[in-house]
Structures are given as C-alpha cells and as structure tokens.
Amino acid sequence: xxxxxxxxxxxxxxxxxxxxxxxxxxxRHGHQVYVQSxxxxxxxxxxxxxxxxxxxxxxxxxxxxxxxxxxxxxxxxQSSEYGYLREDLILFTYLHLxxxxxxxxxxxxxxxxxxxxxxxxxxxxxxxxLEPMSEVAGRMASQIVAVYLEKHMGGRGVLxxxxxxxxxxxxxxxxxxxxxxxxxxxxxxxxxxxxLLDINLERLRYLDDVMHGxxxxxYSNAGNIAxxxxxxxxxxxGVLITGARAPKLITRDxxxxxxxxxxxxxxxxxxxxxxxxxxATTHRDPTYVVDGVLHYGVANMPGAVPRTSSLALSxxxxxxxxRVADKGLQTALHSDPGLMKGLNSYAGHLTHPAVAEAFSxxxxxxxxxxxxxxxxx
Length: 377
Prior knowledge:
The chain is of the alpha/beta class. It has 14 helices and 15 strands. The chain has two domains: 2-111 and 306-376, Rossmann fold, CATH 3.40.50.720; 134-304, Rossmann fold. An eight-stranded mixed beta sheet has the order 3-2-1-4-5-6-14-15, sandwiched between helices. It has a seven-stranded mixed beta sheet with strand order 9-8-7-10-11-13-12, with helices on both faces. It starts with a strand and ends with a helix. The mean pLDDT is 95.
C-alpha cells in the first residue's frame, strides 16, 4: 500500500503523524511511504531521517495526497484540504466530526473512507488511539492552569501549591477518565487541592484508592458541580462521550458564581466543550474572558509539545496503520470489531451513530455500508 504523510496545516500544529521510526516499520512490511518535505520539522525530525528510514520525499501536499492510497494525519482535514478527499482514499486521523458539521459533509460528499483515531476501541472498550493524546492534554492542563492563575496572565494571582499558612489553589476536574486522571496527578503533585467529579462510582473508588495527597472525589451531578465551582480557582474539563458532542456541564449562568480571575481549561473543546461558553482557540491566541472567568480552549493542546506527542501517538497508531496496510481495509475492519468502530464515513455513508445524531443525518451501520458499497462495485 502507498501511505502518505502530509505536513499538518492547522494553526500552530507542529506534530507529525509518524516519526521516521514508524516509517521504517511500514517500509519493512513492504509498503511505500511518501512524506511531504518538512512535515517532521516541527517535531524535530529532519527530511534526511525520513529518507534514511526508506521514505520518498515530495515537495507538496498535493503530491502526497494524490499518490497515496491511505493518508495518515494527526488533525482533521482543514477546509483547504477538502479538495484532496476522494472515494478511493483512506483517511486515518483524528476527525472529531460531532463538533464539525462542514467537515462531516465534506467527507460524505467526497465519499472518502474516514477512519477516526478517537473512536477506535480495543477489546476492553478503551480508546487506545485517543489515550496517548489525552494523557498529554491532561498533564498539560494542570501546567496551563498554574501559568494562567498568575496575575499578569489574567488569573487570580494564586500559586498552585500555596505556601505554609496560605491555602493552595482549588482545582475542580470534571471527568475521571484519562484526561482527568492525568490532570489530577499533576495538580496534586504541584500541591493543589483537587476535587474530581465523575458519574462512575467504580472509577471514583479506584481513584480514591490510588491517588494520594489533597485529593477528593465527588459524584457528578448538577448540584455538586454548581456548589464546587463556587470555590474553584480553576476548572479542568475532561468529559468524553465517544464520538459524540460533550455535554454542557457548566452553563453561562453558572460562571457568575465562580471567583473573578478563575481559570477554565476545557480539554473537551475538540468535541464541542463541556462548558457552554467554551469555543476553540489556538496556541497563538489561546484565551479569552467571559464574565471575569479566563477560558483556555486550544483545540490541539498536545501540538505545543510536538516531539513528545508525535512519538506517543505513533506508539499507539502504528499497529493499526500496519493492520490496514498489510491486510487491506475490508479484511482489517472485519477482523477487528474495535477498528470497525473507527469507521466514521464510507462511500458517502455516515457510519458513526453519535455523529449522525449530532447533525440529524442518516446513520448507516459500518458493516451495512461496506456491504452496500461492495454490491455497487
């Protein structure tokens, strides 16, 4: 199979979908890899490293997209890339369609095969391709809170760990999944007082057992969230419903109860955000203020640490990329039910139920879409 790796063009996105080591594995399996010149520069991988790994370098994105049977990316295609989408192409990347109706229609209209990292599941129902970036974003979230709580950054002027005789920052974390757990680890390690809310009591029991320090769990409901944020110096949103828009757990009306200069870092912004007043921002212009509360809504947080993120992403994605390349799309999907759940679009069919629900579009089960396309052929 011919695999293409174009440079990422989303604002301030410096990650690359595969480092040279991943390319070497694909070549070792007999596949041909085209890499856009400069694609790895932001992550510290030079063109010569890709050449040494067996890749062919191409000057433009258009060449990479046109020659490839499968394009492997980090972020969803930008509007300027929609013209590269075509029916005989596999696109394997983070799509986050439930928060992006124009992209959804672009995939359907082009009839491209859209495989989404964030909806692939393993045998235990976990999300193995989302997990590494959730780990990075969760750990970053607490670092970001610490920075933006500083007065000159627009925050309350609170030190995360406090000092003897002075309270540490109170950090509220919504969601006890990968993002929330990693955010809690770092925040507790910095000395903050952390309250984590989740609806899964078993998860709360587990976190209560393994977390040490100034850490409290609380069952997540509207009343508990409302009472918690009154004393919050910061809120980290880490709520996820696979493939679907994030629920709005903090409304505009609730902001007025939060302290002036408090900080919200909404890691769920890729899926629409779990705070009503959240909208996507960029690393170049990351924050804005609503009702005296500073909001951070960067939609590609791990792009700020691209070398770490690119290596972590490849560690998770490479085996799935190889599976598709080695076996072919149909065999790979039918042999792995978890990979099948990653199929979001196929031959003009929308194949993820949560995305269909988000935009009131027709849903076709992945297996049915594959069968229908095969019958047409």
